[in-house]
Amino acid sequence: MTTHTSTQRVPAPARTPPRFILTPDLKLAIGLTALTLVGLLTGLAGEHLLANPYVEWTGYGLAFLAGGIPAGREALHSLFVERKLDVDLLMVLAALGAASIGQAADGSILLFLFSLSNTLQDWAMGRTKNAIQALMDLNPEGATVRRGGVERWCELGEIRIGDLLVVKPGERIAADARIVRGQTSVDESPITGESVPIDKAPGSDLASGTVNLNGSVEAQVLRPAGESTLARLVGLMEKAQTQKSRTESVTERYESPYAMIVLLCVPLVYAGLHFLGGLSTADAWYRAMTFMVVASPCAVVISTPAVMLSAMAAAARAGVLFKSSAALDALAGVNTVAFDKTGTLTQAKMTLTRIVADDEQAALALAAGLEAHSEHPIAQAIVRTARERGVPPVAVTDAQALPGAGIEARLPTGELAWAGNLRLAGREGAQLTPQQQAALEGLGREGSSSVILGVGGRVIGIMGVADALRPHIREALAHLKGSGVAHRVMLTGDREEVARTVAQEAGLTEYRAGLLPEDKLRIIGELPGPVAMVGDGVNDAPALARADLGVAVASGTDVAIESADVVLMQNDLGKLGGAVTLAKAARRTVITNLTFAFGVILIVAPLAIAGKVPLPLGVVAHEGGTVFVVFMGLRLLTHRL
């Protein structure tokens, strides 16, 4: 059972908002995309508004240089280094082909769309380094170390096995260590997800990255910083984030064959028309270039972004932030959603859940008077409940913390009042009634922390304190099931009793308890996929990265938010079911768009080869298809979660 002591308030470290680092490469990509757009607009203005060929070709030239050179460089790298053809090469050749028959505007549009797509991809991928950096920020710069009886400050890399760490209240523990002197409570939620601070005494282990809440302790270093629990988490993150999702794998699989087919068809069309069809070089080249423009994947390329960006905007309006279109697509196919418990299904805030006493109001008043002298989360929960219910606390004097037991103080009558655990009750000579004993055992089975309240040798009441579920969580999980998610499971580092109780109250039939970060990572790989992981803590970060889709609540840690693909900005899990429905609608629209775009190519391209579709009509079909797929995407802006 968790006990609590009176101690000076340790201010929580200020939470730094998650930041996105604008790297030099990303700045360059954004700049080139902007230049491509400027060139395109300038060229269109020169062609249609000013009728000035100098302005026209200056604009189109800028668009071709800014949009074509980066794509061309990537295409050549793929061709000569990776030995494969990709859409980069196809897009550049299609743009040049359009320009060769007088349609530079078409080529500029293709290059702008492709440049924009690549820039968005670079932005999405940049979060990988940010997530790992946020995780590493949990390491303090160093620690106070006692060597040979002398205390000195050591950098993290200077800490050695066998050193004595001197850890004061509020400090983050710099290395895995074992306490040799002192008692304290430690916030282990970053590592285990345990919702209640854990009491530590000589012989107890401390994990790096956790926070010392109460008294000063001395602990012997067990592992150097490079091999600590936190370092292991960083390694798990790096490994998990290199594993590609199913969607990415499928996309890469078909990218090269598509480019190969189109590129092979262009010279075949020219050769067939010229040598077999008897057309002149100019006519054969005209038809081949018309074919390339028609077959160029402008509508295909914009089909997915138009839908995804619209759906992402609709989701953002409802408080669901998708970090990339790939995340939205992944959510549409999710078969299993795994939830962390503390801070995700629950509020990560201790709440008084039960009072067993003849006079509940009197018991709450006495408990509030005692616990007002303690800063422990359990004490704060009792005081907060009394304040919310309008119950004035009993005035007490001479309050004294009893480490490992509880707290005691004098009543105005001179009697000794106390609140704590069974050890304190035994010390005061108090005996529990059968009803009180049954209540204590019931709270233990439920996973609640218990507080025994007494005056002298009499037990006044039993109180249960637990981490409260988020409001309407049962309805939110039912909505998620109704959206088509077949499996829902809770993964937690908390005790079996706590996990079982929370799962039952939330309406979940499957849960796993007592998990470390590596356990969550392993289980994610074993669940029926595709799998989405919903979490909020540092301990969830590797699982969030390893899952096909990571979902974080905005009240979570920076590491979880950086690691996730989706962030619930209002901490409302009820939005998740609506997001799944939106994602499925987006996927259906993408399929419709792609079917239409490829249908236009399959119908118009043969007609272009046969000379039945002149270039202007081919451009109309090409651009008309683009407008259609964009319109289909914009329809999702009206979707409500």
Top keywords for this entry?
single chain, 641 residues, 6-stranded antiparallel sheet, 17% strand, elongated
Offer a concise description of the structure.
By secondary structure, the chain is of the alpha+beta class.
Please report the distance between the alpha carbons of the first and last residues: 42 Å
Average pLDDT score: 80
Unreliable segments (pLDDT under 50, ≥5 consecutive)? 1-20, 240-248
Measured by DSSP, the beta-strand proportion falls in 15-25%
Number of beta-strand segments: 22
Residue share in helix: 40-55%
Radius of gyration, in angstroms, nearest whole number: 32 Å
Please, how many helices? 22
Largest sheet: 7 strands, mixed
Spatial order of the strands forming the largest sheet: 10-22-21-20-11-18-19
Strand pairing plus helix content: what structural class? alpha+beta
From the spread of the alpha carbons, the general shape counts as elongated
